[in-house]
């Protein structure tokens, strides 16, 4: 039994083909690791599309439970309909304003509903009386209400890691009423920014006719609190990584390789919301207009493979590989390719070494709920980490832009503007770079992953459990 339960689609583990289980480091798992909320919680989620290596379901569950996680096992059909389908082909693009990519297939919602039910059943079986349940992200928007029906005693919180789009976009969803009603099963609903919260409130009134203000609403004789909780990065994780041997080795090797050259880094999941083709266009424009820089700059693109079961992602990978080849063919020379495309994930120690050395970090998503790379880069810029100063180029459409005004803010669609920002960043003098870095670091220190999680959980625990509206009493 558990008094605190986290529920997310993805567990912070990976089942490897040989049957062993490994911890993973996604945005959420590192945030919660940094939160320091100890081991007194159970994490309910899906282990990912990995084979169970011949293990029985029970055996698999037992070994996962020993890691403090309660696995939700999904069938092939559920993976296709719920994860690849409704979550990642309907909701993900729509929540990121990409209506033209959002596919409405009536066969998917029943699987989304079914998997949300599975979560509700699993949680209701392990939750202590009055336990807190913190639900994460767009995969589980029906879960709060399903759980509330089974266990009215629970304190239920939901945090959306993506943007909540304008109601004009959200109302295009055929299942919009069901999703909003699902969320109204919560005691607390949190977003990264005030804009997302305002959009949610507009959707409630326009779609359900339910009125709310920025603090919350009354619905069916229950109070639902609303709030803004911009997620922070895992500060401790990065500070520790910067003291390891791997970090030092990687740092020396890259520094030697760079020599007097300049590193322009980007790190992201290879996702169409991240604006990689648009960034490559800007890189091409920059190299065209600054021939003197061609042999000096190293664009290092770390692109972590993602959601390979979804067609759009396969097409994007091919498109990006093709454009990288074309840029290198045009602007490269014997012994130097301006763009290094690294299509894999990197351990945190290696990422920290890249962040510490990079002269510029380009975080230029088309739309992004928050973006932790921007925060991680700035927080690796300490002289004690042998860091070079660096400049952050940040899309104004990332949630992080609300907090990081000392970055060079860009519109990722404006190719010439982004190319100009690269030039401005490379031209900036060191005192100016440090001034901007310090201003951003001061803010990051106050709101790291731990602070974010503590704030949300404190609000969840104090969320009123009045069962009727005082005005109507
Ligand atoms: C985004 C979502 C997360 C998700 C992550 C990785 O950050 O907000 O919920 O876990 O992408 O995507 P994946 O489909 O691999 O879990």
TrEMBL record:
Look up the domain of life of the source.
Answer: Bacteria
The similarity comment for this entry is:
Belongs to the glycosyltransferase 20 family.
| Protein name per UniProt | Bifunctional alpha,alpha-trehalose-phosphate synthase (UDP-forming)/trehalose-phosphatase
- Organism of provenance: Rubritalea tangerina
What lineage does the source organism belong to?
Bacteria, Pseudomonadati, Verrucomicrobiota, Verrucomicrobiia, Verrucomicrobiales
């Amino acid at each position: 039994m558990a008094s605190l339960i986290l529920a997310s689609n993805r567990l912070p583990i990976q089942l490897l083909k040989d049957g062993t289980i490994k911890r993973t480091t996604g945005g959420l798992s590192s945030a919660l690791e940094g939160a320091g909320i100890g081991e007194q919680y159970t994490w309910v989620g899906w282990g990912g599309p990995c084979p169970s290596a011949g293990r029985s379901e029970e055996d698999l569950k037992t070994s996962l439970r020993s890691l403090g996680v309660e696995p939700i096992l999904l069938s092939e059909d559920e993976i296709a309909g719920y994860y690849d389908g409704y979550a990642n082909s309907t909701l993900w693009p729509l929540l990121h304003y990409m209506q033209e990519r959002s596919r409405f297939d009536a066969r998917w919602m029943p699987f989304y509903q079914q998997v949300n039910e599975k979560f509700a059943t699993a949680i209701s079986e392990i939750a202590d009386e009055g336990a807190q349940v913190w639900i994460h992200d767009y995969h589980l928007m029906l879960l709060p209400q399903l759980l509330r029906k089974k266990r009215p005693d629970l304190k239920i919180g939901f945090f959306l890691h993506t943007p909540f789009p304008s109601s004009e976009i959200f109302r295009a969803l055929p299942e919009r009423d069901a999703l909003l009603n699902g969320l109204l099963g919560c005691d607390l609903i949190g977003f990264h920014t005030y804009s997302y919260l305002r959009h949610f409130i507009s959707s409630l009134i326009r779609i359900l006719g339910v009125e709310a203000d920025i603090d919350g609403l009354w619905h069916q004789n229950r109070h639902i609190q609303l709030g803004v909780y911009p997620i922070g990065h895992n500060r401790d994780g990065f500070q520790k990584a910067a003291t390891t041997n791997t970090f030092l080795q990687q740092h020396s090797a890259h520094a030697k390789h760079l020599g007097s050259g300049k590193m322009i880094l980007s790190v992201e999941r290879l996702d169409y919301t991240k604006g990689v083709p648009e960034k490559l266009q800007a890189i091409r424009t920059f190299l065209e207009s600054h021939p003197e820089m061609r042999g000096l700059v190293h664009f290092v693109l770390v692109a972590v493979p993602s959601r390979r079961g979804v067609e759009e992602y396969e097409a994007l990978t091919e498109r990006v590989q093709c454009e990288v080849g074309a840029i290198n063919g045009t602007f490269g020379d014997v012994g130097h390719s301006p763009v290094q495309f690294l299509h894999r994930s990197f351990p945190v120690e290696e990422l920290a070494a890249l962040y510490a050395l990079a002269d510029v970090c380009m975080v230029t998503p088309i739309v992004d709920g928050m973006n932790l790379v921007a925060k991680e880069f700035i927080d690796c810029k300490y002289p004690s980490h042998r860091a070079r100063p660096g400049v952050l180029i940040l899309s104004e459409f990332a949630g992080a832009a609300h907090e990081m005004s000392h970055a060079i803010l860009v519109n990722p669609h404006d190719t010439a503007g982004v190319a100009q920002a690269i030039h401005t960043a490379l031209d900036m003098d060191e005192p100016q770079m440090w001034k901007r870095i310090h201003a951003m670091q001061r803010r990051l220190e106050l709101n790291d992953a731990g602070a974010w999680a503590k704030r949300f959980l404190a609000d969840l625990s104090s969320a009123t459990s009045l069962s009727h509206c005082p005005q109507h009493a």
